[in-house]
Design goal:
390 residues; nine-stranded mixed sheet; Jelly Rolls; 8 helices
C-alpha cells in the first residue's frame, strides 16, 4: 500500500512560524515536519521569510508559494523585501522594478494609463550665481569653463568642479550659489575636493575658496556630502536653524519639509548635529538619523541608509513609506501635482525601488498593478483613488 504523506494547511504553517500553535496543532505540525527533508527545507524557507526579513505572512497562499520558488532569483534582482500584515499581498517584479502593497483580493477595474499623456521628467536648467551677482543658466548637455576671480569653474556633464581654487592665491573669498530645478540633481566638487550631490529643487551657498579656519556651506532641500578630512578646518553645514559639524565623513541632510523636521543621516564617520535655537546637540554614529523637530527637540533612530541616499544614483527607494511622501518626492522630478481622493490614501504604505529618468506613466502602471490605488489625469493634476471591487 502506498504511504500517504502527511499534509499541512497554510494557516497551520503560518501559525507555526509565528509560534502560535495550540497543543493539538503543535502535534500535527511536528508529525508533518518529521515526515521528510522537503518539509523541513520548506519550513526553513518560511522562517527565513518571516524572521530574517521581518515580514508578516499574508493569507494569500499562491503569492507566498511563488515567492518561495523564486527566492534565489529575487535575491539577485532586488535589494530588500519588506511588507506588513494584510489580507493578501501582490508581489510585483516588472523589468527589474518591484512594489509591495497589502490589499484585499477581488476583481478590480483598472485604468488604462497608456491613454494618459506622457509625463516625462522635468527638463530644467541649473542656476549658478557668481560673486558679482551674475546668474548663469547651465545647459546640462554643454560642457564649459567659467572664469570666476582668478580661477576657473569647470562644468563637465552633470558635475561642477571648483578644484582649481584649492591652491589659489586669492586672499578674499567670494560667495557662489547653485540651485537645481525640478527633475534635476547635480554633483559639485568644492575647492577642498569635498563632493556634494544636490537633489532636485535644492540649493547650496558656499565660499570660493573656503575660509582658512572653516569650510561652511548652507543648503535648502536635500544634499549628500562626502567631506575631505581636514582636522584644522571643520566642515559645517547650515540649514533652516540646524548646524551639522564634521571633520571628514559621508552624510545626508534633508530639509525639504521643515514643518516635519530636519533630517541628518550618517553613512560614515561622525557628525555633531546642533539645533541653533535651543543649543542642543548630539553626535551621530553610522546608520543613525537625527531629526530636529519644529519644537527644537532632537531624536535619533536607526535607518536603512541605502533608502536615504539612493536618490543620488537615480533611484527612488522606499521602505514602508507613506504614499503622500512618495508623491512629494515624485513631484520634485515630474511636472505634475497629486490630489488624493481622501486622507486615508495618504497613509497607504509602499515598499519598492523605481528608476528615475523615465516617463512617470511607467511608474504609475506599477503602482496601479498593486491593486491598491488607481489614477485619473486632469490637466496637470494626477488624482489618486482607492480601488473598488466590481
Amino acid at each position: 500500500m502506498r504511504k500517504i504523506k502527511p499534509q499541512i494547511s497554510w494557516k497551520l504553517l503560518r501559525k507555526a512560524v509565528a509560534g502560535k500553535l495550540d497543543p493539538d496543532e503543535a502535534k500535527h505540525f511536528e508529525y508533518w515536519l518529521s515526515a521528510g527533508k522537503m518539509n523541513q527545507e520548506y519550513f526553513t524557507k518560511a522562517k527565513l521569510y518571516y524572521t530574517k526579513k521581518k515580514i508578516e505572512f499574508p493569507e494569500f497562499e499562491p503569492a507566498f508559494e511563488k515567492f518561495l520558488r523564486d527566492i534565489p532569483k529575487r535575491q539577485k534582482r532586488i535589494r530588500f523585501i519588506r511588507t506588513y500584515a494584510a489580507a493578501s499581498i501582490v508581489i510585483l517584479v516588472v523589468a527589474g522594478y518591484f512594489l509591495y502593497f497589502s490589499l484585499f483580493t477581488g476583481e478590480i477595474e483598472l485604468n488604462d494609463i497608456s491613454k494618459f499623456s506622457k509625463i516625462p521628467p522635468v527638463s530644467g536648467k541649473i542656476e549658478l550665481t557668481l560673486s558679482d551677482g551674475r546668474q548663469l543658466m547651465l545647459d546640462d548637455k554643454k560642457d564649459t569653463y567659467i572664469t570666476e576671480l582668478s580661477g576657473k569653474i569647470k562644468k563637465i556633464e552633470n558635475t561642477i568642479d571648483y578644484r582649481s581654487y584649492h591652491k589659489s592665491e586669492i586672499k578674499t573669498s567670494k560667495r557662489n550659489a547653485l540651485k537645481t530645478p525640478k527633475g534635476k540633481s547635480l554633483k559639485i566638487i568644492l575647492s577642498d575636493s569635498s563632493v556634494v550631490w544636490l537633489n532636485a529643487e535644492s540649493s547650496i551657498n558656499y565660499l570660493v575658496p573656503f575660509d582658512e579656519n572653516e569650510r561652511r556651506v548652507s543648503i535648502t532641500g536635500e544634499a549628500y556630502f562626502e567631506v575631505t578630512k581636514n582636522s584644522n578646518r571643520p566642515f559645517i553645514v547650515e540649514t533652516n536653524g540646524a548646524e551639522i559639524k564634521v571633520l571628514g565623513t559621508k552624510f545626508d541632510v534633508n530639509s525639504y519639509n521643515v514643518k516635519e523636521g530636519i533630517y541628518t543621516t550618517l553613512i560614515e564617520g561622525a557628525v555633531d548635529v546642533k539645533d541653533i535655537a535651543s543649543g542642543k546637540s548630539i553626535i551621530l554614529k553610522p546608520n543613525e538619523q537625527a531629526i530636529i523637530s519644529p519644537l527644537n527637540e532632537i531624536a535619533i533612530k536607526n535607518v536603512n541608509v541605502s533608502q536615504i541616499i539612493d536618490w543620488k544614483d537615480g533611484r527612488f527607494l522606499f521602505e514602508k513609506e507613506k504614499l503622500v511622501s512618495i508623491c512629494e518626492e515624485l513631484s520634485r522630478w515630474y511636472d505634475v501635482n497629486f490630489q488624493f481622493e481622501n486622507d486615508e490614501l495618504k497613509e497607504y504604505e509602499f515598499s519598492g525601488m523605481l528608476e528615475r529618468y523615465q516617463d512617470l506613466n511607467d511608474l504609475l502602471e506599477l503602482f496601479q498593478e498593486t491593486k491598491a490605488v488607481k489614477f485619473t489625469m486632469e490637466d496637470d493634476i494626477l488624482k489618486i483613488w482607492k480601488y473598488k471591487n466590481n
